[in-house]
Structure formats: C-alpha cells, structure tokens
Amino acid sequence: MFCRLTLIAFIFILGCGGCPTAILTSIQPSEGIPRQILAVEGNDLDFASVIWDAGLVTEASALSTFLSARYFQIPPTSSVGNHPVRLSRGGNLSANTIDVTVNEMQGVWPAPRIEDVGLSKINADGERSADVWLTVSVANVDPDATVSVNGTNQPSLFVSAITHDKFNTFDASTFAYPVYHYGLLLVLAGTQNLGSTLDIVVTNKDGQTGTFAYPLVGDIDEIDSDNDGLLDSWEVDGYPIPGGGGVIDLAAMGCNPKRKDILVEVDWIAAAEPNNTIWAIIEDAFDTAPVLNPDGSQGISIHIDRGQGAPFNQGGTVLADHTLMDFGPNATPGYVDFFTYKGDAANFATARKDIFHYCIFGRAMPGGYSGRGEIWGNDFIVTFATSIVWGTDIAEVGTFIHELGHNLSLRHGGIDNGAVDANLTNKPNHESTMNYRYQMAGVSTDCDFTSENIHTYSMGMFKTVDEASVNENIGICDNTSLDMNGSGTITNERMDVNLNRTNTDIHVNYNDWGNLKLNFRLPGSRWNNN
Fold first, then answer.
1. CB within 10 Å: which end of the chain, N or C, has fewer?
2. Longest dimension (CA), the chain
3. At what angle do helices 393-407 and 278-287 cross, to 10 degrees?
4. pLDDT digit string (tens) for 142-196?
5. Please, are residues 394 and 453 in contact by the beta-carbon 8 Å criterion?
6. What is the pLDDT, as a whole number, of residue 13?
7. For residue 20, cis peptide bond before it (omega within 30 degrees of 0)
C-alpha cells in the first residue's frame, strides 16, 4: 500500500507551492463513526490533503483519496464529539474549518465485502501474460487496506468512494450488514496469465477479509474493463455488425469502456404507450446506484432507445395490437407471441441482438401477470395496461426495473444463485423493487413497509428473518416493531411472514446491486442467441 508519506512526497516532487488554496465548502455527511469515509465538497481539491482536528494538539492528516482531498476516512481512534476539519494544499490552509461530529460505534465494524472487480489497464507482455492494473470496489473498506492477488500482496491506492449516512440515524448493530461506504482501490496486480482466475483478498486493518474470484480475459482483444458485456473496442470504435454492414456507434449513445452501460430498446402497442416521464426516473435510479466503476464514477448508465432521436431512432415503434402477449406460442384468440414481434426486423434489428435488451409494453399477459423477464437474459415485457394503476409513473417505473432486474439475474427474493429462498416473494426484509411488496409502490429503505416512492435494488443490509422464531417486537432493524404478517398484533412466535402458507422459510436480504450480471451472452444465461 502506498503510504501517506509516499503521497506527500509525490505531491512535493510535482510542486504545488503556487497552486490555489483549496476551498472547503461542506463535508457529506457531516457526522459519522470512526473508520467511516466522508465526502468533501469544495474547489481545488486535487493535490490537497485533509487535516483532522485542525488547530488542536491531536491534529493529524487523515487518509484520503490519492492526490485529492475529495474523500477521507474518519481516523479510527477519533473520540466521540466534534472535530474541526481543514484542507491543506501546497502548504496553504483553507480559509475555514468545518466540524465533523463523531458518533459512538454501534455493534462491530463489518468485514469488507468485494462488490466488483474491473480493469483499469492491461498491457500484454506476450500471447499468454499481461501486466494488469485492477480496480476493486469494496463495501466498508479501509483506505489503507491491503490487497493480495493469488496470495501475493500488491500495491494499491484508494481512488474514490460512495458515502452513506444511514447509520447516523439508525442503530447499525440491528442490521445484518451495515454499509457505511463503498471504496474503490486501484491495484497494481503485476504480471498475470491471460485466461486465469485471479483470487483477490482485501484485508482491512482489523484483519477482516473479503474475497473475490476474477476471471481475467483470455484474449487481449476481448477486454471488457467494466464487465458490462460490451467490449472496450466496441464502446470506443463501435460494435461491428455481424456479417458486415458497418458498426453500431456505441460511443455516440454515451457508452464508456470504463463505466457500466446497459442498452435497452423499447416498443409498445398503442394501448400500452408508457408515460414519457418515466425514462428520466429510470435513468436516475441506475445513475445513482451504489456501484463504483473503473473510472471512479458512481452508478450505471442505462441507454433506452424509445425513438427519441438519433442515435436512438429504432425504438418507440407502435406495434400491431393484441389482447394478450407472452413469450412463446399460445392458442388464445388475440394472443401474440413476443418473438413474433421481435422476429420482425422492422421492429427489432437483428444486428442489435448481442448487445441490446428488448422490452415491449403490452396490454396484458395470460394469467393477469404484470410482466415477465428472462432470468439472466435480454428480453422482458411490461403488461398491465388493463390495471387500475396503469398510467402512474411509480408503477410503470417499478415494473420496468423489476422485469429488467430478471434480465440482470435477479429473482424476487434475491440473486439467482441456487439459494432456497432466491425466488420467495414478499420477503419482509428485502428492500428491492424485485420484491412484490414494492414493485408497484416503491421500496421502503428503513424499518417499516412504508414506501419512500423510489425504485432500487437491495444493498443486502437487513437482518435475516427466520420464520421458526419471529420477533415482531424488534422488527427487521433499529428495534422498531413491525407487523410482518399483517395480523394486526405484534407477537414473538413462529409465523408465515411472506404469506406463502408455510412457516419454515428463512429470509435473507441479498445484495442485489453487488450481484448483477450485465453480460447476457456468457455461458449459463437464458439468452439463447435470440
């Protein structure tokens, strides 16, 4: 790990004596616990450092992002109370200080959890090996954590973060896995064999570890730095249409090889035309996702072609009417097979099948279901135009995100990993749009069932609920009572909390965002090359 002294020496070598003084505007959040990472707002933060307890006898430099004061860690030994923070740049101090309130730690600091691994840079040494720079996104990581690759410690730098302030108002000890922040580490992984699997271990200063198995690309021409299923070469030079015929200009659509992208084309029948206002809401839900990219940015860019104008000029087709629609044939009068629509090149260009999800807004499904999505695939439908909630943004957004979530490998109760409750519905502790409790109304991100009118996937924070012994008096977090089975009373007993007529289920709050599968062409998916 590059130590703080190395950072200061590097800044000194570059020379910053004539640099403008850093301006400190705010710190977000303004309170936290020891080891939590906070964000600095201001100007001229590059080559600046964070001074903790500025002007006090305990003054010290806080660990911050490499060559920037944009993020810093509350020192682990900080006492409860107010601590003045100031910036230093080239020996010049910011004009003001801002107090950060340090709260008492509730429970214990959780182990680091690796969310994703990407490629920052790769240089081929030959046909079988390459020098590799990785980016490792980790929940609750210390900025000076150590990183090993295949058993060897490698140099790393803390480069960006996502801050989180939930546990300034909630008791973290009542959660299964509180997320105080996400951090991105740049790891100089050294020379590695192409096509091998890299065993990555992140170790925090308290000795707790997180592990991740990262399959390194086997061919330098197949690099996908951000693991979104779109090769870097496609996102820079365009996706080459199979069989010739030019390229699809992904860069013009906003794709970035160092930031995760999802491409979706949407068509509809006239009776099920979605509200035009939903697209910005969906884009924001993914843009603000708790996901860190190889370029250090937060979120996923979702590019939805609904015919809004070049380069998005193939979606938004008004399809022939139907009474019912689903995947596959059905003899019901008025029924249309989804693939009848998709198989018509006038609706969906074959050249897009390897890179675009395809969504159709239809009238209804047999059985009255609101939609369907291939689990880890590329096709999904939204079909509740006959419902009383049709036409409301919150329901249309929720169903779109829910069915797209299936395409990204998510199930109603979590990830598609073979776990016994991955497809359980109505789990009381799963704050995800994948949960039927929240698909239409929006999720609850606190300790009750009341929607906050937003749609998102789970971060995997809430504690497990075992139906064999449910204590509604302490609920799912913060020791807040919660009537989980809707009985009208608060009890402590065996009960059916998700109303599936059994009382033997164990409900785990899965980490949806950390387990998305964006590449639907990989072996094991339900893509079927269609």
1. C
2. 81
3. 50
4. 999 999 999 999 999 999 999 999 999 999 999 999 999 999 999 999 999 999 9
5. yes
6. 39
7. no
CA distances from 7 to 58, 69, 260, 524 (A): 21, 12, 29, 44
Q: Which helix (H) or strand (E) holds 223?
A: none
The b/e string for 195-228 (b: 16+ C-beta within 10 A; e otherwise) is eeebebbbbbeeebebebebebbeeeeebbbbbb
Q: What span, in angstroms and rounded, lies between the C-alpha atoms of 68 and 79?
A: 25
CB of 139 within 8 A of CB of 439?
Answer: no
Among 416, 413, 441, residue whose Cα is nearest residue 425: 413
User: CA–CA distance from 445 to each of 282, 286, 412, 429, 459 (Å)?
Assistant: 18, 16, 17, 10, 10
For residue 6, the 8-state DSSP code is H
417 DSSP 8-state letter: S
The CA-based angle 421-175-444, given to 5 degrees, is 70
Residue 161's SS3 state is: strand
Query: Measured at the alpha carbon of residue 460, what is the angle toward residues 455 and 466, in degrees to the nearest 5?
Result: 110
- What average pLDDT does this structure show over 293-297? 98
CB 525, CB 447: distance < 8 Å: no
* Interval 196-211: pLDDT, tens: 999 999 999 999 999 9
Secondary structure letter of residue 221 according to DSSP: G
Can you give the length of the chain in residues?
530
261-269 and 301-305 beta bridge pairing: parallel
pLDDT at residue 17, rounded to an integer? 60
CA distance 527 to 305: 20
Q: What confidence score (pLDDT) does residue 5 get?
A: 37
Domains and CATH numbers, the chain: 4-102 (2.60.40.10), 113-219 (2.60.40), 232-407 (no CATH), 419-523 (no CATH)
244-266 pLDDT tens trace:
889 999 999 999 999 999 999 99
With a cut of 50, say whether residue 3 has pLDDT above it: no
Determine the Cα–Cα distance for residues 380 and 370; give it in Å rounded to an integer: 11
Q: Which of 95, 101, 100 is nearest to 24 (CA)?
A: 95
pLDDT above 70 covers what percent of the chain? Answer: 95
Cis peptide before 29 (omega within 30 of 0): yes
Q: What's the rounded Cα separation, in Å, for the pair 123 and 131? A: 5
- Asked if the model's pLDDT at residue 524 lies above 60, the reply is yes
Tokens (6 digits) for 243 = 């069989």
Q: What is the DSSP letter of 526?
A: S
